[in-house]
Write a structure and sequence with these properties.
By secondary structure, this protein is mainly alpha-helical. The chain contains 14 helices and no strands. The protein is elongated and about 70 Å long.
Amino acid sequence: MNKLFITLLLGLSLISSSSWSADFDKGFAAYNSGDFATALREFTPLAEQGNASAQQGLGLMYTRGEGVLQDYKTAVKWYTLAAEQGDAIAQYNLGVIYDNGEGIPQDDKTAAKWYTLAAEQGDASAQYNLGLMYFDGEGVLQDYKTAAKWFRLAAEQGDASAQFNLALMYEDGEGVLQDDKTAVKWYRLAAEQGDAKAQTNLGVMYAKGDGVIADKVYAHMWGNIGSSNGNENGGKLRDFLSKEMTSSQLEKAQDLARECVAKNYKGC
C-alpha cells in the first residue's frame, strides 16, 4: 500500500465562528478575499496574545506563502503554539510538515504524535494518514489491526482514500478477517466518489465473482469508468474482458458506463 501525497487542509474555513473576536473576523474576511496583508495585520497580535485560531491562521499563511515569504520553520512555530492548545487542524498540519520534512528534518515519530492527537479529535485526514503510518510501520510499530481502526474511522466520515484502503485490507485479510463482501462495500463507496482505483478494483471483484455475483458486464463497466478517470489497470481490465464478451454484452456495458457517469457514479 503506497503512501499517498498529503495535502494541507485549508484550515481557516473549519474554525468555529463562535470563538472569533471582531479582529479575527476582520482578518478572516480579509484572508478569504485574498487581502493577505490585512489578514496578517489582524492575526499577528491575536496570535501573540495566545489566540489558537489566529496562530493556526498564521501557520497556514507561512506554509502557503500568503502575504509573507514562505517559511516552514515559522509555520511550525505558530502551528505548534496552536496545536499545544488542542487545535486539531494545527495538529494535523504540523503532522503533515513533519511527515513530508518540509523546511525541517523529516520526522515520522513526531508526525505520528501530531496525527494521533488530531485523529483522536475526529479529524478524518489525520485518521487516514495515521492509518497509513501504522500500515507501513512509519513512526510507529507496524500494526495492521490499528491501521484498519484508523482507516475505518476516516472511511465512516466519507474519506474515499480510507474507504479504498480499508477495502484492500478486507480483500487481503490484513488486520481484519478476510471478507470479500465487506471489501466490495468499501470499494463501492469509494467508487461512488470517483476514486479510479476503487472503480477498477470493484470491476475486478465483479470479474472474479468475489463478494458479488460474477458479472462481466458490470466488471467491464467499472473497468471502463476507472480507465476514463485515469487508472491504467481499468483499461487493461476492460480490454481483457472485451475479448470474452459478446457484442450485445459490450453494448450493454458501454451503455451502463455512460448512465453511471451521468448519475455521478451513484446507484450503478
